[in-house]
Amino acid sequence: MRNIERILAAILVFIFSLHLLSVLGFYFDTLFEKMIFIVLEIIVLSLLGFVYSYNKEHHMKKRSVITIHKIIFMIYLISLTDVLFLSSDLHRDATLLAEYSHMNTIPFHTINLYITGYQNGTVTLNTLLLNVLGNFVLFMPLAYFVPFFFKNMRKWYIFLMMMISLTLVIEIIQINLGIGSADIDDIILNVAGAMSFFIISQFTFSKPIYRILGRE
After folding, report:
1. Is-contact 213 66, C-beta < 8 A?
2. pTM score, whole prediction
3. Cβ atoms within 10 Å of 136's Cβ, excluding its own
4. Around 162, how many Cα atoms within 13 Å sit in the side-chain half-sphere?
5. Which among 13, 107, 158, 200 would be 20 to 30 A from 168, CA to CA?
């Protein structure tokens, strides 16, 4: 069992190191690379939690795993801030979306523009995936970390209201700062992605992790 712990810890350190390099801007600076690090870290943290539950002296290690959760959550928030306000990853293509200026209140209009643009050959597959799938996965890690640290967020309707409020505020900030466009499709994709991962995690690995790490 100790060998498994060491292997998982080594994997986590390796992934964490690559993630840190991406945050510092050395390598792996695309949205998908940033998000895949978070997902991999969540998986390894979950496995470590299960392994530690079989260790008689795991009470000390539980605190270490919780501390690692906090560190990774902070790195995710830094990465999220970079993507939303500093990076050009999810900034809209002004030429493609000029028809609705900097605001879209029609559900699925922007998504349809990207799909139609891809079919017409004016939008690349990478751009389509980045703006549609990218917005879908962007807030998924919140569905794991927020309920982990805040018990009241484990109720789906409270988490849903939090996500809607959060994405609304982000859209308002982006358009006021002139770094993005207020788009109902962003909110739909962000919330749908977070809620999808919330449901999956709450019905699979999250509750056992809460119990093992004393977060019930």
Report:
1. yes
2. 0.77
3. 19
4. 17
5. 200
Q: pLDDT tens digit string along 73-95?
A: 887 888 788 778 876 655 555 44
Q: Kindly report, residue by residue over 22-40, the tens digit of the pLDDT.
A: 655 555 556 666 666 667 7
Report the distance separating Cα 142 and Cα 76, nearest Å. Answer: 9
Q: What are phi and psi of 183, to 5 degrees?
A: -140, 120
Quote the number of domains for the chain: 1
| All residues at 6 or more sequence positions from 34 whose CB lies less than 8 Å from its CB, including other chains | 19, 22, 23, 28, 79, 82, 83
SS (H, E, C) the chain: CHHHHHHHHHHHHHHHHHHHHHHHCCCCCCHHHHHHHHHHHHHHHHHHHHHHCCCCCHHHHHHHHHHHHHHHHHHHHHHHHHHHHHCCCCCCCCCCCHHHCCEECCCCHHHHHHHHHHHHCCCCHHHHHHHHHHHHHCCCCHHHHHHHHCHHHHCHHHHHHHHHHHHHHHHHHHHHHCCCCEEHHHHHHHHHHHHHHHHHHHCCCHHHHHHHCCCC
Its domain, for residue 203, covers 2-212
In contact, 55 and 1? CB cutoff 8 Å: yes
Q: Whole-angstrom Cα distance, residue 47 to residue 64?
A: 14
Q: Which of 17, 15, 58, 54 is nearest to 37 (CA)?
A: 15
Residue keyed to tokens 């902070």? 74
Contact 189, 135 (CB under 8 A): yes
